[in-house]
């Protein structure tokens, strides 16, 4: 699979200095964790689940989560499991090997080996499980269940734990919980693809819900946790994990109450003022702002609950020509430290402090590509969204 694979050859040539590379489910964890991009969640009880997954893959989605947890009413879980198993068998029969990456969000650890047994050979289309309410206590059960599933299927499935419990949010338990989580995840490091943040459940612990005018970083009790999760689990010294951005809850609505936050100037400069209008009508302005804040705070990729979010998150993940040149200069320097003037003449590049950033940037460039010098996320969005 490949990000922006739906573009024509001419559009790709005009938009990218270096196009995205292909990857598959057998690529290394370092690459795949970044390649997740916008991970689209779907309720597992969708009647046409297999067809919907195939349709979204054709539209540019490279990672999907079929949800058996919060998206499913308690009394519908058994029917949703049956629907999910049938959909995965269909995908297997249709040779779904080319993607997207596919995960199942379970309700509890026992569902993991039970589902794998029901899937039989169709487990080949499944890449792993999303583990909600993951704590230092429940996490052990989840990972043991994944061990059992691997033994049953003769495979190696991946895990994406979701941090969304009171133990990790409350101030009196947070440091101890994060330390215990770090030790637990490191013991099973080979299979941890990414650590996800359950912002909706975290907000619920205080009866909070952000409006479309606010990002999760304006909700201080959750923003403080994000900083601590990155501090403990997202370090760039080789011990960290990819931490993904939390879901943005809003999509197209009938009206806007407040003035949109989406700045007009980049769209006017790119002769795409009509695109701005289409985005604002979809309540996407807040998403753009939050993705930018995710990146600035050390998060990679994002959970998505609506297809319209995918193009935004992935377009904002493309490496700019300027970023790529700076990263190349830093990594290509023969100096043992010191400072280089940016090739764009607008910043300094310090060899040692910027090396980790440069490596992360080059990895992102491999899966999302490098934009042409005069191309911004606006042009990438314009090419990705339906007219």
Task: Briefly characterize the structure.
The protein has helices spanning about 10-15, 30-35, 50-60, 75-95, 110-120, 140-155, 165-170, 170-185, 200-205, 220-235, 265-270, 275-280, 285-295, 305-315, 320-330, 350-370, 375-385; strands at about 15-20, 40-45, 65, 100-105, 130, 160-165, 195, 300-305, 340, 350, 370.
Low-confidence stretches: 253-260
Mean pLDDT: 91
- Would you tell me the structural class of the helices and strands? alpha/beta
The arrangement of helices and strands along the chain is HEHEHEHEHEHEHHEHHHHHEHHEEHEH
Query: What's the CATH architecture name of the largest domain?
Result: Alpha-Beta Barrel
The strand order across the widest sheet is 7-6-5-4-3-2-8
Number of helices: 17
Distance between the termini: 24 Å
What name does the CATH topology of the largest domain carry?
A: TIM Barrel
Strand element count: 11
Radius of gyration in whole Å, from Cα?
21 Å
């Amino acid at each position: 699979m490949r990000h922006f694979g739906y573009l024509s050859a001419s559009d790709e040539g005009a938009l990218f200095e270096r196009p995205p590379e292909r990857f598959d489910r057998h690529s290394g964890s370092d690459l795949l964790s970044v390649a997740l991009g916008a991970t689209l969640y779907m309720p597992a009880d969708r009647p046409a689940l297999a067809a919907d997954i195939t349709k979204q893959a054709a539209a540019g989605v490279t990672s999907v989560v079929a949800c058996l947890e919060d998206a499913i009413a308690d009394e519908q879980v058994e029917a949703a499991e049956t629907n999910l198993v049938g959909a995965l068998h269909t995908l297997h029969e249709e040779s779904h090997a080319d993607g997207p990456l596919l995960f199942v969000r379970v309700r509890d650890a026992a569902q993991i080996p039970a589902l794998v047994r029901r899937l039989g050979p169709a487990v080949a289309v499944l890449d792993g499980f999303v583990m909600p309410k993951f704590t230092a206590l429940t996490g052990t059960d989840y990972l043991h269940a994944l061990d059992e599933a691997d033994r049953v299927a003769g495979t190696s499935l991946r895990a994406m734990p979701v941090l969304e419990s009171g133990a990790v949010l409350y101030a009196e338990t947070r440091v101890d919980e994060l330390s215990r989580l770090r030790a637990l995840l490191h013991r099973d490091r080979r299979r941890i693809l990414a650590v996800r943040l359950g912002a909706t459940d975290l907000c619920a612990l205080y009866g909070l819900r952000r409006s479309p005018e606010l990002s999760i970083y304006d909700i201080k009790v959750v923003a403080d946790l994000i900083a601590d999760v990155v501090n403990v689990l997202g370090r760039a010294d080789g011990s960290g994990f990819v931490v993904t951005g939390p879901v943005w809850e809003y999509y197209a609505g009938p009206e806007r109450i407040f003035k949109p936050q989406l700045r007009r100037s980049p769209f006017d400069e790119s002769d795409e003022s009509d695109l701005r209008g289409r985005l604002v009508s979809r309540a996407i302005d807040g998403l753009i702002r939050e993705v930018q804040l995710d990146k600035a705070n050390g998060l990679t990729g994002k959970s998505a609950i609506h297809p319209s979010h995918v193009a935004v998150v992935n377009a904002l993940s493309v490496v700019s020509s300027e970023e790529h040149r700076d990263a190349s200069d830093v990594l290509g320097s023969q100096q043992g430290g010191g400072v280089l003037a940016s090739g764009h003449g607008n910043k300094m590049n310090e060899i040692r402090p910027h090396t980790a950033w440069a490596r992360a940037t080059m990895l992102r460039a491999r899966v999302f590509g490098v934009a042409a010098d005069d191309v911004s996320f606006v042009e990438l969005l314009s090419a990705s969204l339906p007219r």
